Amino acid sequence: MKTILFICTHNSARSQMAEGLINALYGGKFKAFSAGTNPIGVNPHAIRAMAEIGIDISGHHSKRLTEFLGKKIDYVITVCDSANESCPVFPGAANRLHWSFPDPSAVKGSETAKMDAFRKVRDDIKSKIGEFFGKS
User: Fold this and answer.
1) Is residue 118 among the annotated active site residues?
2) Total-model pTM
3) Model pLDDT, residue 52
4) Which of 5, 7, 8, 65 does the annotation list as catalytic?
């Protein structure tokens, strides 16, 4: 089984959603993990956005990138520009990719506006995963 590590600065939304999507949709083919360069906890809006499509990430927690250094990872994928710039080299990683998604946590305004931002990023990540890894 191939392993994927999604990296974002805070490991709170984009990388968590990507991890959840891979493990739910491609569980027999890939095992995904996520980590952050400065983890702060999983954003409740990310948990809600994923629950809306039947994927439970409520048990996820933010992890430090250093937990994965030295481990064999087939794909290292940064999902935010900041993490892409500060991501260390993973000697065991066969593939290093960068997928830039806007930070839904940065959206200000109503609860509806915030959830709409999380839904859009969730759907964009799901689409990108499907394009790259094939439909589940």
Assistant:
1) no
2) 0.92
3) 98
4) 8
